[in-house]
Design goal:
Elements lengths: L2 H7 L40 H13 L4 E5 L2 H9 L7 E5 L4 H10 L6 E5 L4 H7 L4 E7 L11 H10 L3 E5 L4 H4 L9 E5 L13 E5 L2 H14 L5 H12 L1 H21 L3 E5 L9 H7 L6 E6 L5 H7 L4 E2 L9 E3 L11 H6 L6 E5 L5 H14 L1
Parallel strand pairs: 2-3, 2-4, 4-5, 5-6, 10-11
Antiparallel strand pairs: 1-7, 6-7, 8-9, 9-12, 11-12
Helix pairs in contact: 1-2, 1-9, 2-9, 3-8, 12-14
Length: 379
């Protein structure tokens, strides 16, 4: 089956018992055993739930993986994945990534003997330079959040595999519709499904997708033991979101192309970061490992003093955290998504007080431009 059909149907498009074309919501914490030593396959929803199982299988198919695990948030997914490693292990991480990931690694897991090295992973020589005998994994966001840097997945996979480690790719920005990291050698794919996968700003969820037989039982045990498994209703909402993922991502990307060009010509804007520009430093790499640039745009204003007024005046585009939904959102990373990152590191990565991040939605593109234009003029 083609990917858009998989997103709609997965391996089972109806309930085999009732014929329901919408996967039932099995809103049950526990399940009756037929007898001692007998099970229907479902015992307790923290371990397995039928609604969640359908979602996990469907996303695994979409990412060309064998296994999928659904969590109550993207951070829950990352936290469980770290359980594959041991104190003393080092992980090289994209320096330009979501601030919540930095906080989880630096403020929490570093206390337990893990070490993390923050590197511009779009520059392969820096990865080579910072690799040590303790390095067990590369954790990359590509494109990165918010500076839209692209990391070479295949090259990173070859490098870390030769040294016995894993490649972990956060695929939140492009989704399986535009990029499949497992096809290029990644071992584990992470999603904040809160974003494009559920797609309507109404659900928190996260995912790990992989094909590692040896890791599956350990990840399932971590998911069950930590208790961050996705609830049945949220799993159903995400299944519904997947059905329109292709349509939403393509529409938002068309809007983003027009808006990125408009921003680049605006006299108040200094620089626009969007991987669809032919002069983007990793544009050719992006074409080799993905099927499109997506709909995330970051840009520097020339005057940071204009930003509070812009954020106050936008009306159709909402000033809010998060991204990837039907509605366009604008975010100020320095005080929102990346405030947990130390200032020196943040500025070195390009996240300064002139940067805005725009998640382009599926509204009429002329209405979005008109909203930006009136907000810029008001500033």
């Amino acid at each position: 089956m083609k990917l858009e059909t998989i997103l709609l149907h997965g391996d089972l498009s109806f309930d085999p018992v009732t014929g329901a074309v919408s996967t039932p919501i099995y809103q049950s914490a526990t399940f009756r055993h037929p007898g001692l030593g007998e099970s229907t396959g479902y015992d307790y929803s923290r371990a397995l739930n039928p609604t969640r199982s359908v979602l996990e299988k469907r996303l695994a198919l979409a990412e060309n993986g064998r296994y999928g695990l659904a969590f109550s948030s993207g951070m829950g997914a990352i936290s469980s994945l770290i359980k594959l490693f041991s104190p003393g292990d080092n992980i090289i991480v994209s320096a330009d990534l979501y601030g919540g990931t930095y906080r989880l690694f630096n403020d929490y897991y570093s206390k337990y003997g893990f070490s993390f090295c923050w590197v511009d992973t779009s520059d392969f020589e820096r990865i080579e330079k910072h690799f040590t005998r303790q390095t067990k994994a590369l954790f990359v966001e590509t494109p990165s959040n918010p500076m839209m840097k692209v990391t070479d997945i295949r090259r990173c996979a070859g490098f870390i595999h030769e040294r016995g480690g894993f490649l972990i790719v956060d695929n939140t920005f492009l989704t399986p519709w535009l990029q499949n990291p497992l096809d290029f050698g990644a071992d584990f794919v992470i999603h904040s499904g809160t974003k494009y996968l559920s797609g309507h700003h109404d659900t928190l969820c996260g995912f790990i997708v992989h094909s590692n037989d040896g890791a599956e039982a350990r990840l399932r045990d971590a998911q069950m033991s930590e208790g961050a498994a996705l609830a049945p209703f949220d799993a159903w909402l995400t299944l519904r979101g997947l059905k329109t993922l292709a349509l939403r991502v393509d529409k938002a990307a068309r809007n983003a192309e027009i808006i990125a060009g408009w921003l680049r010509q605006h006299p108040a804007v200094e620089e626009v970061f969007w991987i669809g520009f032919p002069d983007h430093p990793q544009h050719e790499l992006s074409l080799r490992q993905s099927r499109g640039p997506g709909s995330m745009i970051s840009f520097y204003m020339k005057d940071a003093g204009h930003i509070p007024r812009i954020l106050k005046k936008v009306s159709l585009i909402m000033f809010a955290e998060s991204l990837g939904g039907t509605d366009s959102l604008i975010t100020y990373p320095v005080v929102q998504t990346h405030s947990a990152i130390p200032e020196a590191m943040r500025v070195a990565a390009g996240v300064n007080d002139r940067l805005l991040r725009l998640s382009v939605g599926i509204e009429n593109v002329n209405d979005l431009i008109a909203d930006l234009d009136q907000a810029f003029r008001a500033a």
